[in-house]
Amino acid sequence: MNSSLSQVVARAVERVKRTASGARILAEWLGEGGKPVDRTVAQDRIDVCLRCVHNKPTQAASIEKTVAEAIIEQEQVRNDMSMILYGEGNAGTCDVCGCYLKLKVWVPIKHLDSSGMPDSCWISRESKSV
Ligand code: SF4
Q1: Atom 6 of ligand 1 has which residue's CA nearest to it?
Q2: How far is the CA of 20 from the centre of ligand 1 (A)?
Q3: pLDDT tens, 54-98?
Q4: How far apart (Å, rounded) are the C-alpha atoms in residues 20 and 127?
Q5: Atom of ligand 1 nearest to the CA of 52
Q6: Which residues pair with residue 94 across a beta bridge?
Q7: Domain ranges (residues) in the chain
């Protein structure tokens, strides 16, 4: 990630954290500390998802109301912070973990569970290397 883009995201994270609701949303999305991974890492991850058979279109009707509300909140923050990735329009929901991929790819690996994920998944790969 080029350093100016990194700084833009870092500044945006700090700005959002200054509000109580922003800090809560970041912590619920990104785990304790509310800090996303670097944009190059998120892009590499979503590139793997885009080639994966488990990436399925998101079925809004099948998402629980509370989960849908959390996704909407987190998506608003993600857009505010310009955390947009190439090809993300084709990223849906993972049919293994059930997660909304545009949000998940920004989460630090220490907050993700690799159990049950296929060997080809970036979560399995990264979990083995930490
Ligand atoms: S299994 Fe892994 S790579 Fe495949 S869609 Fe799910 S999170 Fe992405």
Answers
A1: 94
A2: 32
A3: 999 988 887 888 888 899 999 998 988 889 999 999 999 999 999
A4: 31
A5: 4
A6: 55
A7: 3-128
